[in-house]
């Protein structure tokens, strides 16, 4: 028959083993990985072959044939650079672009809109850096444009990108709905963080190709990640301690200076977290409205206006 002492010993041993396992996993050192042109891959990024405790699985990268890649919205992108200074950023390039073909363009449309409104964005926590990207609009028209000074003519250089009844053009930079020529539509949108355009009103096809090969930068949004890490568990603990402190202050007024002060401090901390969350949401909404113009172009094309 198992006595209470034996139960206590067994429970203590299980607790010690659990704590040992916990501290062992926390103390485990994560050596940076490498793949191809990326010499250092460390937290928050990780390779699929890295130990489970290293990096964030939401920022998992693949290494195939010594080439680093990441999947964004079910599409493959090559990783060209990772910067760990301040807030980590990653620069990626559409894997469908051919380096040696100036007429090779993305096959998948990806713009800031995808990251602002798509639910999968909240899984990756990657977002374009508004000050470091330029949209690239691929449009097609049933007739040649008479005044195409603001657009780069693709049809005359790339026969494969035009058909008998459609003429292809590219507009680099933000474009208003009013700038879209009548009867023309947006076929695809891309982004670039390349900043060496000489004149956005007169962009050459070689500049466009080089900008696409340079890719675009994404921020890991560590503040969003930290806030998600805290979420319900931390919020419940703070609320529990807050209620306990307030009850302590009511039941035992003499120790209000200890429990009450701690409770009020936690309450202020909780209020700050909520305010930061609201501020972050306002910023997101403001960025989303600034990108509605681009999405409106896609809607116009889908409706066939």
UniProtKB/TrEMBL annotation:
Signal peptide (from-to): 1-28
Alphabetical UniProt keywords: Membrane, Signal, Transmembrane, Transmembrane helix
GO cellular component: membrane
Domain Wall-associated receptor kinase galacturonan-binding per the UniProt entry, residue ranges: 30-94
Transmembrane spans: 230-251, 258-283
Chief location bin: membrane
Subcellular localization, as worded in the UniProt entry: Membrane
Membrane topology according to the record: Single-pass membrane protein
Protein name: LEAF RUST 10 DISEASE-RESISTANCE LOCUS RECEPTOR-LIKE PROTEIN KINASE-like 2.1 isoform X1
């Amino acid at each position: 028959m198992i006595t209470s002492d034996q139960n206590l010993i067994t429970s203590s041993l299980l607790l010690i083993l659990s704590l040992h396992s916990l501290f062992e996993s926390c103390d485990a050192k994560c050596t940076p990985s490498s793949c191809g042109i990326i010499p250092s891959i460390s937290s928050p990024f990780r390779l699929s072959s890295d130990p489970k405790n290293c990096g964030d699985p939401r920022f998992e990268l693949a290494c195939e044939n010594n080439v680093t890649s990441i999947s964004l919205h079910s599409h493959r992108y090559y990783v060209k650079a990772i910067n760990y200074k301040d807030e980590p950023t990653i620069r990626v390039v559409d894997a469908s672009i051919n380096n040696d073909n100036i007429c090779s363009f993305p096959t998948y449309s990806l713009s800031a809109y995808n990251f602002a409104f798509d639910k999968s964005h909240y899984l990756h926590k990657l977002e374009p850096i508004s000050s470091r990207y330029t949209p690239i609009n691929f449009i097609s028209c049933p007739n040649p444009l008479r005044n195409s000074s603001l657009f780069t003519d693709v049809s005359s250089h790339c026969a494969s990108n035009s058909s008998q009844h459609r003429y292809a053009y590219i507009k680099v930079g933000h474009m208003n709905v009013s700038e879209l020529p009548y009867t023309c539509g947006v076929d695809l949108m891309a982004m670039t963080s390349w900043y060496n355009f000489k004149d956005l009103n007169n962009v050459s096809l070689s500049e466009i190709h080089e900008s696409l090969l340079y890719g675009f930068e994404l921020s890991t949004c560590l503040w969003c990640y930290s806030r998600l890490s805290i979420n319900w568990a931390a919020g419940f603990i703070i609320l529990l301690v807050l209620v306990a402190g307030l009850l302590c202050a009511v039941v035992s007024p003499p120790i209000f200076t200890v429990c009450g002060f701690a409770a009020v401090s936690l309450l202020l901390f909780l209020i700050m977290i909520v305010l930061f969350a609201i501020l972050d949401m306002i910023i997101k909404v403001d960025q989303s409205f600034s990108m509605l113009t681009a999405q409106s172009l896609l809607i116009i094309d889908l409706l066939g206006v």
